[in-house]
Amino acid sequence: MLTRADIGVIGGSGFYSLLDDAEEIEVATPYGPPSDVVTVGRIGSRPVAFIPRHGRDHRFPPHRIPYRANLWALRSLGVRQVLAPSAVGSLQVEHGPGAIVIPDQLIDRTSGRVQTFYDIDGAVHVSFADPYCPSGRSVAVTAARAGGWATVDGGTLVVIEGPRFSTRAESRWFAGNGWTIVGMTGFPEAILARELALCYTSLSLVTDHDAGVEAGEGVTHDEVLEFFARNVTRMRGLVAEAVQGLPSERSCPCGSALDGIKLPFELP
């Protein structure tokens, strides 16, 4: 029975069939339980831990996901590299539904979400200039292109609070700033991963053009879920390829993110 993994996947419930020899593990954290039990299994020879971001019954809306518990649980199981597939809206006409964006930058437009583990016993300042793992990004881009996806290498993900979608004015403002895609779950996942010295890579599937880009009534929840469901099998294949392409030994800067910093507590 597998109880450890060096790669983590945070995604939708449609990713359960991603793993072979899967076992469910309940993990306690100082931040409460994660979104659901953690499933540990294999993709090829690689041990992988999977957490359904919203819970298997989709009970957690974006602003109430237990982000800290999810990342802490993964690290406590040995995870050091995280892949994060998600659905996003496109802010640019040229990137339509079905494109895969591997962002290299992030804008936080959330409010009220706890975005640090280090909120007691002194401040810990962690570099976040480049939010995503360069090695993970390279692997994801290669896997997406090999899979025939319309692949966008780089771009800015703006994360909104949710659960509502953007107004047209907000969407046009985001697009006017040159930002690429919009979603609701990529933050604080990315910074919490960095605070645990984890590699974090976003694999963003464009499901729609955002309200300010496309005419009509605007995006709906049902349309997003329907489009993602139609593509989930293909997304599982992309994640599986990316998992097998990740390096067994990290040489990226992510693992040294906490070097020289005095932490107020010991990490798992």
Averaged pLDDT: 92
Summarize the helix and strand pattern as letters: EEEEHEEEHEEHEHEH
* Count of DSSP-assigned helices: 5
Main beta sheet strand tally, sense and closure:
11 strands, mixed
Shape category: globular
**Overall domain count:** 1
Q: Any low-confidence stretches, pLDDT <50, length ≥5?
A: none
DSSP strand tally: 11
Question: How would you characterize the overall build of this protein?
Answer:
It is a single chain. This protein has one domain: Nucleoside phosphorylase domain (Rossmann fold), CATH 3.40.50. The two termini are 21 Å apart. The radius of gyration is 17 Å and the shape is globular. The protein is built from five helices and eleven strands; from the N terminus they run ββββαβββαββαβαβα. 46% of the residues are buried. Strands 1, 2, 3, 4, 5, 6, 7, 8, 9, 10 and 11 form an eleven-stranded mixed β-sheet that branches. The protein has 268 residues and is α/β, with parallel strands linked by helices. Helix 3 links the parallel strand 9 (156-160) and strand 10. The protein has helices spanning 67-76, 134-146, 168-176, 189-195, 221-245, and strands at residues 7-11, 20-25, 38-43, 46-52, 81-90, 100-102, 105-109, 151-153, 156-160, 181-183, 199-209.
